[in-house]
Design goal:
Elements (H helix, E strand, L loop, with lengths): L1 H25 L21 H21 L4 H12 L4 H14 L4 H13 L3 H14 L4 H13 L5 H14 L4 H12 L22
Length: about 210
């Protein structure tokens, strides 16, 4: 139990460092659909070295762990997330797929996979995985928000579908950052937030053109 706790503490520290590096790199880049989740804990696109160097030793160590324990969901998903947040999506994808073979009903594993795919620009695959998360957990607030972001930034944008998911994300739990971001996006689109959400604009609903 203590080793799992220590591992969780290590990955929290590593991923926090990676996110900080990603935010710095993202400030120098043009925003694209690959960086959908700025400020919500995702890995942003940027200089590969900023992602690979800080966690290289940890990644190598956990590759050894997974090789010895290929059926351990926690170890496999841990390594997949490290690789996904280190701009090594090609290596992360087989590990996410392995995690879902081990636990096909694990919504968190599938959500992590979807986010990694979206950050890597694989939008159609990300769309599929987000929708599978919602089949497992219809009230998964993160999946609704991230799917709305994906639809909003598609070319051409799928605005009407994005609005549906922003509204659902806003109303599931009005106290979260995701709810606040969802309300902001709805306001930008000229659409009222769900009744009862704090900070709701009072303008009438306007149907956006897809």
């Amino acid at each position: 139990m203590r080793s799992r706790t220590n591992r969780a503490q290590i990955v929290f520290a590593i991923l926090s460092s990676l996110v900080i590096c990603g935010l710095i790199a993202a400030a120098l880049l043009t925003v694209s659909p690959a960086g959908l989740f700025d400020g919500l804990g995702s890995g942003d696109e940027g200089d590969a070295e900023n992602f690979q160097d800080p966690g290289a030793d940890v990644i190598a160590e956990n590759q050894t762990v997974v090789a010895a324990n290929p059926d351990d969901l926690e170890s496999v998903l841990f390594l997949a997330n490290l690789l996904g947040n280190s701009n090594r999506l090609a290596e992360a994808i087989p590990l996410y797929e392995r995690a879902l073979e081990i636990a096909p009903q694990d919504a968190n594993a599938r959500l992590s996979f979807a986010r990694a795919l979206s950050d890597g620009g694989m939008l159609a695959d990300a769309d599929l995985q987000f929708r599978k998360v919602l089949e497992l957990e219809p009230d998964n607030q993160q999946a609704h928000y991230y799917l709305a972001e994906l639809y909003r930034l598609e070319v051409p944008p799928r605005t009407s579908e994005a609005i549906v998911h922003y509204r659902r994300a806003a109303e599931i739990d009005s106290t979260t950052l995701i709810s606040e971001r969802s309300r902001e996006q709805l306001a930008t689109l000229g659409v009222a937030s769900p009744t009862g959400s704090p900070g709701v604009p009072t303008a009438p609903v306007q149907e956006a053109t897809p």
